[in-house]
Amino acid sequence: IISYFTSRRNVRVNCTHKLECDKVVDTVDMEDIGDKKTFCRCWKSSKFPYCDGTHNKHNKETGDNVGPLIVQKSKQ
Length: 76
Ligand code: FES
Prior knowledge:
By secondary structure, the protein is of the alpha+beta class. It has helices spanning about 1-5, 30-35, 55-60; strands at about 35-40, 70. FE2/S2 (inorganic) cluster binds next to helix 3.
C-alpha cells in the first residue's frame, strides 16, 4: 500500500475545473448556503465546488475513501 501512494505522489488531482487558472479558488456567500450545502473534495463533481455524488463512483473504481464537506446550520 505504501508503494502505491509513494508512486502516485506527483499525480495531478484537478483534471477538469478551471485548468487555465494557476490556482482554483471559489467563494460562496453564506447567504447562498441556506440550511445545508455539500462541497466537493474529490474534484470530480460536474457541479464543483458542490458535490454531485460522483465521489461514490470514484471510490468504487479506485478504492479511495473521499467524500464531501457538509456545511450546515447547527441544530438548536
Ligand atoms: Fe466530489 Fe462528492 S462529488 S466529494
